[in-house]
Amino acid sequence: MKIWVPMDSAAKALGADDVARAIAREAAVRGLDVQIIRNGTRGMIWLEPLVEVDAGEGRIGYGAVTPADVPALLDGRLNSLGPVDMLDWMRRQTRLTFARCGVIDPLDLDDYQAHGGLAGLRRAIAMSQAEIVKEVFDSGLRGRGGAGFPTGIKWRTVSDAVADQKYIVCNADEGDSGTFADRMIMEGDPFTLIEGMAIAGLGVGATRGYVYLRSEYPDAIRVMEAAVVIARQRGMLGPDVLGSGRAFDMQIRTGAGAYVCGEETSLLNSLEGKRGTVRAKPPLPALEGFMGKPTVVNNVISLATVPVIFEKGAQHYADFGLGRSRGTVTLQIAGNVRHGGLFETAFGMTLGEVVNDIGGGTLSGHPVKAVQVGGPLGAYMPVSKFDTPMGYEEFDQKGGLIGHAGLVVFDDTADMLQMARFAMEFCAVESCGKCTPCRIGAVRGVETIDRIANGDPGAAALLTDLCETMKDGSLCALGGFTPYPVMSALTQFPDDFATHKEAAE
Fold first, then answer.
1. What is the sign of the dihedral through the CA atoms of 387, 392, 398 and 403?
2. Are the beta carbons of 160 and 311 closer than 8 angstroms?
3. Residue 114: CB atoms within 10 Å
4. Are 373 and 395 in contact, with CB atoms under 8 Å apart?
5. Which DSSP symbol is given to 359?
6. 3-state secondary structure of 138
7. Helix locations, 175-299, DSSP H
8. What is the C-alpha separation between 417 and 490, in angstroms, rounded?
9. Percent of the chain having pLDDT more than 90?
10. Residue 103 contacts residue 59 (beta carbons within 8 Å)
């Protein structure tokens, strides 16, 4: 009998380790031959710890299992969810990047290969550098870290650059509120990230790579470091990648958790051992990045998606999506929501479908008031904009941004003036301090919102002007995007600001 118990951080926080120990103890007492496999999560966080049992008839799921449930589980008396792959949450997805997550043992390279792993890298090895870059370009893959920049263009720039050394840097500094896709893939399917980085290295002529992880992710750090050692031992990394005669190796580096280090140039400074402050552009990192050399800086999900593009072909990936948003988007549904978790689907599903249909509405049972999409710098989208399709350009036209595709749901008890204040306060705390609009503007922003709350009739116009200055004058997206949540709160939920004014009067 095989039993899968997730070792994902979310599942562990909900008691998965205790459940795994209870299964081991009970099986030993009964003399049962049980193989316990610690997998990643399937993404249905409300069902964690989600235990799967295969007694010869396929993997049957049991949701929110506790140690007290273990005797009934082993007796076959515990109510099951049925085959996990047949659950509505799973059947409705288009799982490409996350196809193996929750299915395999994350640190079993043979299990990884049995589920399609390394097929993409082997195909890439048979291709020229230019052919590899063209494949990524033709797939339509765009940066999943927030900006949505075409990955193929970035790779082509680095590939065409002339230098004695080039680098691949994975931005794994996942700091946006309501986001966890990077962590999930690193904890649940680390080899797909390593494979994607190796393909990127072959494509642009880089022989060295780094994953920049945040210290708040100890489990992801542990799994990634172990996976790199295994990959190196098995010839997936090193001087002769899978016998190709081409070299690529990589290391895991841990940052101290500054939000601004999610910005690529600040990350590069930190990676070099410097203070994590933003660099002016140009020069672009693609030409002068890590140690002044041409560098590809891509997000975890961008790089983890590369293997499936090479396994199935660029056209297969490009056939999914909407407009210029090709492939799939890994939606991370969080906040006051009934069914929180990761849902991978083709671009194009509307925001309302995601929140009300997939997410099941609010956990509190109150009406949805707003959804912040794209992390703490994302706009608050009201219910009136729930017909907006999930696509980069489509969201931009409605004054929003998809960013890292994290969605945080709020019900009608949320005070949007306080949410706007939080955005400015967050920017003030996390600013690297290099540019005046962000460093000073965010502090003034908090003060100005407090003036609105205290009934100052001219403060709203001042806040609007301040946001314009921050948007146009900030050196990076921290100061430049903070106006998104602030102005969306002010314009879409004016009653919340008027209520404070009336109370002050």
1. positive
2. no
3. 11
4. yes
5. S
6. helix
7. 181-188, 190-204, 218-233, 264-271
8. 7
9. 87
10. no
Tokens of 232: 């190196």
**Phi, then psi, of 299 in degrees rounded to 5:** -75, 160
Decide if 95 is inside a domain. Answer: no
Residue-wise pLDDT for 35-62, tens only, equals 999 999 999 999 999 999 998 889 999 9
Q: Has residue 329 been placed in a domain?
A: yes
**What helix, strand, coil percent values describe the chain, rounded to 5?**
50, 15, 35
The two tokens of residue 206 are 């880089």
Whether 272 and 291 have beta carbons less than 8 Å apart is answered as: yes
User: Please, what is the angle between helix 181-188 and helix 300-312, to 10°?
Assistant: 60
Element (H, E) at 299: strand 295-299
On whether both 310 and 326 belong to a single domain, the answer is no
C-alpha atoms less than 13 angstroms from C-alpha of 367 in its C-beta half-sphere: 5
Residues 6 or more apart whose CB falls under 8 angstroms from that of 72 comprise 78
Q: Do 156 and 258 fall within a single domain?
A: yes
Collect all residues with Cβ–Cβ distance below 8 Å to 315 and sequence separation of at least 6: 138, 139
pLDDT tens string 129-173: 999 999 999 999 998 877 789 999 999 999 999 999 999 999 999
Among 21, 116, 6, smallest CA distance to 61 is for 6
Tokens in use for 279?
């660099």
Residue appearing with tokens 């399937």:
42
Name the residue range of residue 374's domain.
321-411
Domain count for the chain: 4
Q: CA angle, corner 230, sides to 227 and 235, nearest 5?
A: 125
Render pLDDT for 101-137 as a digit per residue (tens, 0 to 9): 999 999 999 999 999 999 999 999 999 999 999 999 9
465 exposure class (CB count in 10 Å sphere: 0-12, 13-18, 19+): exposed
Examine the fold and report which residue of 386, 411, 436 is the final residue of a domain before the chain moves on. Answer: 411
Query: Considering 272, 298, 318, which residue would you say is the last residue of a domain?
Result: 318
Distance of alpha carbon 118 from the chain centroid: 22
